[in-house]
Amino acid sequence: MSEVQVNMRASSLPVAATFALVLTPLLYVRGWFRLRRCSPNRVPLRSLSAFITGFFLVWVAAASPLAQLDHLSLSLHMVKHLLLMTLAAPLILVGAPALPLLHGLSGRFIQSRWFLRNRTIRWIAFVLAHPLFCWTAATAVVIGWHLPVAFQLAMRSSWMHSVEDVCFLLAGLLFWRPLIIAKPVSSLTKSPRWSMALYLFLATLPCDVLSAFLTFCNRLVYPCYLFTARPFSLSPLQDQECAGALMWVWVTFAYLIPAVVITMQILSPAEAHWQELTQPAWPRLAVQLQDGSESEVL
Fold first, then answer.
1. Residue range 138-182, pLDDT digits in tens
2. pTM exceeding the 0.85 threshold for the entire prediction
3. Domains contained in the chain, number
4. Exposure letters 228-253 (e unless 16+ CB within 10 A, then b)
5. Residue 96, domain extent
């Protein structure tokens, strides 16, 4: 058994990560019930379902048996990253998390609202909401963690492996924020609607380059998989090629389908176009799930 296998099998999810996976949904549910008592339609049940489903997918990627098998197969490792960035993150945002999480805290914290008056926090919120920063940060995380040095480090250390998972989740939250949460922090972050389709299209390019490299480079990029067990009877190189192809297809559907929907909305008749301009740039399903989330700050 290799050193990587020994380290990964002996590891468990860090206490902080386990605490966050348990506490955050509980806070959300508590705040959701508080909001429902005050205003039944403020955050609908569909938002609660989306948020809980998103966190369930985080658990699947970070704490389930799948998370313990990614050291055996690059394809399974790739599935984890894609779950965190393209499914869990947008579902969490569709759940309109800011208001329920804030109301899940103590009443004194909500009443003080010091975080709304703090200039530093408002500046950070402005930066985090800007599409250029969101796109750059998400792309940097995808490329950076797939560099052999960073990847090998994460595979040798359970702590770094958890940091990697957190980075992919945060990158997904940043990436999908401009599309799902429409209200900008400042007018400077407002963009023409067509730019969101371009935003999604450009996001596929770095992933296409990376996945093409993994698929066609004809050499093993990550030596840690050379001596691991083969759960799918694939050689390490075949597993790498499968991981690259999986990333290529998955990202294409995850990014280009919303881009096509947005483009079709732009080209729709004038009245429908005007109605869509007053709603988030995400497809209709996400808009419906996110009823009542316009008052989010972050």
1. 999 999 999 999 999 998 888 888 899 999 999 999 999 988 875
2. no
3. 1
4. beeeeeeebeebbbbbbbbbbebbee
5. 3-289
